[in-house]
């Protein structure tokens, strides 16, 4: 949370070293710590391949003005009930029991939604949205750090500021950071095949500049189809970004976001066409989450439930929190959490947690979530597949990533923890640590 300058009483953020109003040095508190208390793993036994194969076949949900259409949500729940009814015919007793439990839970949710519809409600308000991240308007001429509008002195180095806008418009050149980048993927302890794909690399920009691309894709479709879909999504989106960004200067956040949307849609169309041309790959699809770092700006594109996080001990949100999820899961349980039908903890182990209503390759067109954010030294950008978050809580992810100075070791620790707690799915992690300087390293 924000605090007060002990000298002039102005509001200061947790990461501030100097008061933005009077310029005096602020007392520094110890870094924020997140204790890890590993939970007992209570998840349901896995159904090999089943959820991964059919999780994208729900109806498409639309969210507008922070509301959901009740009828659309009921359609998604009905689709899930019909899918789980197949499990009742399984020869495996565990599968039948899990299907019965899932149908019972979904039926209770259906009754609740139907009662609200009968009472005349046609929409329901979404109660949980992604957090507001730090916003900066003025760049420090000495250290380049961002400061809020109206600040007279830099919150990081104490230098006198001018009123030149920094992020979005203005003549101030973006800072260039040192990036440490690592990507790891693991099959897990249950599945026979790894259907995740990860990628990190550089993209050439005009005037000898570089952008840094990271992505995670989590395929579905069974056997070779899911693996093929995730790698095809990675290859097509990467090639599109390399081709288009090398030919055209992209000076604004919106043009970068538009390029990312086009790259994801190109991947979607390719996978959709291949799936419909090859009966063996019919129904395949994948999630896709992309992080593109250009100067001191982070651009994100996402479809599905592979996530992106921003972490920093000095705070990444307006209220000073050290971790923020940058993407919204396009899953049934995420929307049920939004409207209060499930708690976040229930969602982590819910049987429907892998049922997506939006994915790459399952429809001829797709909606793509995008956002742009400012980067600061000390930030960690973390991408992961749901094989990590199904076993490891957000606060544990942040604690491990921020407490270990070696990001390769931190990525390995995260994957190991997910495996220790069951490893029911493929597990992928990409981490980028932001530091001052001009070099980049990939691991």
Topology:
Elements: E1 3-4, E2 11-12, H1 50-54, E3 63-64, E4 67-69, H2 70-85, H3 93-118, E5 123-125, E6 138-139, E7 146-147, E8 177-186, E9 196-204, E10 210-220, H4 223-247, H5 253-277, E11 285-286, E12 288-294, E13 297-303, E14 307-311, E15 323-325, H6 332-338, H7 344-349, E16 369-374, E17 380-384, H8 386-389, H9 394-403, H10 407-420, E18 427-436, E19 440-442
Parallel strand pairs: 8-19
Antiparallel strand pairs: 1-2, 3-4, 4-5, 6-7, 8-18, 9-10, 10-11, 10-12, 12-13, 13-16, 14-15, 14-17, 17-18
Helical coverage, percent range: 25-40%
The largest beta-sheet arranges its strands as 15-14-17-18-8-19
Globally, the shape reads globular
The topology string of helices and strands comes to EEHEEHHEEEEEEHHEEEEEHHEEHHHEE
Please describe what this structure looks like.
With 443 residues, the protein is an alpha+beta fold. It has two domains: 67-125; 174-442, Phosphatase 2c, domain 1 (4-Layer Sandwich). Helix content is 31%, strand content 21%. It has ten helices and 19 strands. It has a six-stranded mixed β-sheet. Strands 9, 10, 11, 12, 13 and 16 form a six-stranded antiparallel β-sheet that branches. Strands 3-4-5 form a three-stranded antiparallel β-sheet. Strand 9 and strand 10 form a beta hairpin. The protein starts with a strand and ends with a strand. 46% of the residues are buried.
